[in-house]
């Protein structure tokens, strides 16, 4: 509200499902995050993840003499893997380097019970155990000996609900092609991502606004016609394929 009052404005349509929005109004645009990254949220609790995450004071002091808080090492490891492996066009392999640096910092010990338990707690809380398991497995192949093998058994034992698996598929599906998330389209995949932190009622309220923006429709009232036309094209293409 302060930035808007100062003359800054969103660079794209904004709605409740956006965890962040780009604002223009000065020499450098501002990427304003109003909530935690959408991979680390809990259903119907947009800010619920904040209370779950532990933070520590950053070792580096700002030139002003002030200090800032950053994610604790286990939280930082979870965020780096889950956010780093999210699809978005080009494959971002640099997250592997970040993970190795976190592990080598000496601030986290996956061979120790406390840090390993904390990582499993976070994986269970946010429904990201399969992604953490596969991400750490990849890091171990790239940098052998970096990870205590017991964490893999611990993560494999964490239960993941169908909704958690669907949401993680929406974040990590191969970006090639137009079909995503079990045959759903790009817009629906993105909606699954963005609606994760909303209650059922909020998600229903958001749907017309989001799909109007995603499809470029002039109003929500045009969405049924667009859906019918899309279904017709899919059926026609399927018949031609046979």
Fold and architecture overview:
It is a single chain. The protein is mostly helical. The protein has a domain at 51-219. It is 50% helix and 9% strand. It has helices at 2-5, 48-52, 73-84, 94-104, 113-126, 129-142, 150-156, 162-172, 186-194, 200-215, 223-241; strands at residues 9-10, 20-24, 30-33, 55-57, 69-71, 179-180, 184-185. The strands form 3 sheets. The protein has a 3-stranded antiparallel beta sheet, with no helix packed on it. A hairpin with a 5-residue loop joins strand 2 and strand 3 (30-33). Helix 3 (73-84) packs across helix 5. The longest helix has 19 residues, at 223-241. It is globular.
Please summarize what this structure is.
By secondary structure, the chain is mainly α. The chain contains 11 helices and 7 strands. The strands form 3 sheets. Strands 1-2-3 form a 3-stranded antiparallel β-sheet, with no helix packed on it.
Defining key terms:
single chain, two-stranded antiparallel ribbon, three-stranded antiparallel sheet, mainly alpha
Largest sheet: number of strands, sense, barrel closure = 3 strands, antiparallel
Distance between the termini: 55 Å
**How many DSSP H or I helices?**
11
Structural class: mainly alpha
Net shape: globular
**Order of strands across the widest beta sheet?**
1-2-3
- Radius of gyration, whole Å: 21 Å
Q: Give the % helix.
A: 40-55%
Number of strands: 7
User: Low-confidence parts lasting 5 or more residues at pLDDT below 50?
Assistant: none
> How confident overall, as mean pLDDT?
79
Beta-strand share of residues: 5-15%
The succession of helices and strands, N to C, reads: HEEEHEEHHHHHHEEHHH
């Amino acid at each position: 509200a302060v930035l808007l009052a100062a003359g800054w404005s969103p660079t794209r349509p904004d709605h409740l499902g956006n965890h962040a929005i780009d604002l223009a109004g000065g020499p450098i645009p501002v990427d304003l995050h109003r909530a935690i990254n959408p991979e680390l949220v809990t259903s119907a609790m947009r800010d619920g993840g904040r209370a779950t995450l532990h933070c520590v004071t950053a070792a580096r002091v700002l030139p002003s003499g002030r200090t800032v808080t950053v994610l604790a090492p286990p939280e930082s490891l979870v965020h780096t893997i889950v956010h780093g492996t999210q699809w978005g066009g080009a494959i971002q392999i640099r997250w592997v380097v970040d993970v190795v640096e976190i592990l080598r910092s000496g601030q986290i010990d996956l061979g120790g019970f406390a840090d390993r338990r904390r990582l499993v707690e976070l994986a269970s809380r946010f429904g990201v155990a399969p992604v953490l398991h596969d991400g750490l497995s990849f890091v171990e192949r790239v940098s052998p000996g970096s990870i205590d093998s017991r964490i893999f058994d611990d993560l494999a034992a964490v239960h993941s609900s169908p909704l958690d698996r669907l949401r993680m598929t929406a974040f990590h599906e191969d970006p090639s092609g137009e079909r995503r998330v079990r045959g759903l389209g790009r817009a629906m995949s993105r909606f699954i991502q963005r609606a994760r932190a909303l209650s059922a009622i909020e998600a229903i309220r958001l749907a017309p606004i989001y799909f109007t923006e995603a499809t470029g429709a002039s109003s929500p009232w045009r969405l049924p016609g667009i859906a019918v036309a899309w279904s017709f094209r899919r059926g026609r293409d399927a018949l031609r394929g046979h």
